[in-house]
Amino acid sequence: MRLLITGAGGQLGRTLQRQAAPHFEVTATTREQLDIGDAEAVQAVFRATRPALVINAAAYTAVDRAESEPELAQRVNADGAAHMAREAARTGARLLHVSTDFVFDGQACAPYPPDASTRPLGVYGRSKRDGEQAVMQHAPEQATILRTAWVYGPGGHNFVRTMLRLLAEKPALSVVSDQIGTPTHTEGLAAALLALGGIDASRGCILHWTDSGVASWYDLAMATRTLAARRWPKRPLAEITPIPTRDWPTPAHRPPYSVLDTAATRELVGTPPHWQVRLERALLHDAAEEWLPEAAIG
Predict the structure, then answer these.
(1) Exposed, middle or buried, 221 (CB in 10 Å: 0-12/13-18/19+)?
(2) Do residues 96 and 144 touch, judged by C-beta distance below 8 A?
(3) What is the pLDDT of residues 108-153, one digit of tens each?
(4) What is the pTM for the complete model shown?
């Protein structure tokens, strides 16, 4: 089966390529190779590759910078999603579109089900919400939208890699403790996407996927520190202090609670491991250079 992966240069895109390679004829396009905000470029890629399955992992993900670049965020996350969906509908390709917990405002007190009302707090979340709507408008029979949260993996720009670097460089760190979500490793997310591509029951659906469990950013930082101390026991590591969101102002507002209800997806593809199990597996067993290519922790 021919598979087209967009956003191939990102952490999820790289994981998707590795997992898909034994099973698919893969075409993977980076941001430099395909601007999904360009309708003609998207059409050309579909004509050249004739994919049966498409995973749109391309996105503008700079949450804070989006506040000053709303047109660019909209071009990629909304217009780009629309272009991908139109071509999927025109060619009959199966489309999996990756979205985010940032479509919610974080005021819930229980995990968000897929059919919960969206109310994004900032430009990034609005652009992703608009992309979801475009996908379901233009490819309702071919598409699945999979929302996820707090994604990390080796080689990407993410919270875990940033923490590892700062733990080695700084004497002390402050980390927000009152934003709650679920860390999600790219390995499980990629596997769920590839599995859903072969499940007709997921067509026309919005689904959620994260690893199991919940955490604050402080919880994730402390877990990362504990595992770093086990892997690099001779290296001094920064102490971490919990702080409230009000003490760490950012250009974009973030949902204080963004736990996603993944029950419907678990029924289709199985139950993921707890985020702590997945993090331990990654930090203790992956090659060190995958997490710290500059040898920040020796």
Answers:
(1) buried
(2) yes
(3) 999 999 999 999 999 999 999 999 999 999 999 999 999 999 999 9
(4) 0.94
Of the candidates 143, 171, 153, 172, the one whose C-alpha atom is nearest the C-alpha of residue 11 is 153
* 124 in active site: yes
E strands in 138-214: 143-148, 151-152, 172-176, 180-181, 184-185, 205-208
Kindly give the pairing relationship between strand 215-216 and strand 180-181: antiparallel
What average pLDDT does the segment 250-260 reach?
A: 96
Domain boundaries, the chain: 2-158+183-213+258-273
Which of the following is catalytic: 60, 112, 124, 152? 124
Residue 297 pLDDT exceeds 90? no
- Work out the end-to-end distance of the chain between its first and last CA atoms, rounded to an integer number of angstroms: 43
CATH code of the region 2-158+183-213+258-273: 3.40.50.720
